[in-house]
Amino acid sequence: MMKNLRYSSAYLMLTLGCLFSLSTAQATEVSQIIKTTDQLRTGGGNMQVETEITTYLRDGTLEKERKYRVYSQAQRQSLVLMQSPAEKGQKVLMSGDDFWMLLPGSQRPMRITAMQKLLGDASVGDIATMNWADDYQASLSGEEVCGNQPCLHLRLDANRKSLAYQHIELWVGKKYYEPIKADLYVQSEKLAKQASFVMDKTQAPSAVVEMRLSDQLSSHKETRIRYLSRQSKTVPEAWLNPMFLAKNPVLE
User: Fold this and answer.
1) Do 184 and 165 touch, CB atoms closer than 8 A?
2) 70: Cα within 13 Å, side-chain hemisphere
3) Which of 85, 96, 128, 194: disulfide with 78, CB 3.0–4.6 Å?
4) Which Pfam families match (predicted)?
5) Which domains does the chain possess?
């Protein structure tokens, strides 16, 4: 009897150990998947990204088009320079969870949130942040078919309440882990936007070239964010200080 009990206990511990190992291995694998997806979306490292945002009305008519230069830096820091004549001189700085808008002629940075709109349904957070690997806890929901290819369905839960989206349902390609589509939920658990991603090529993609956002709350317009070019760029540390930016409107 005691021998059977010892055998049962040993078997139970072995089973639990195996389950724990599988769970840990899966968590590690999912973490690597998200890091690969981020690399395809942002390029990784300190980058300068020339970005174009275009909005379309519900009937598909072109509404507006704007250009931005985004400096994405380490430690969750980004600087956005407006390039189009209608917004020339305006800047947005992100440092961690803090965001500032800087307007020409004003020497006082204005606090904003990650949900501050830039154009159409593209918010500051959509082009200056969204580092999924660092900002979200990811888990695998299952495998599905997306269009004509197998994909993985992941759930991402925000690590902090300050993030623009508190929960993301994400689908990535099973082979290359490229992002295919995402449902973006705000704090109220309402579906705010649906995103789809265009890759540079079908086989062995190396970068996202466009993100399309469809508003699910009000306007139901489509906003397209195109990444025109990417290159490595480390900006001077002073550029990431809101007071310096307020006193030095011209950087280039």
Assistant:
1) yes
2) 28
3) 128
4) LolA_like
5) 42-84+112-231 (2.50.20.10)
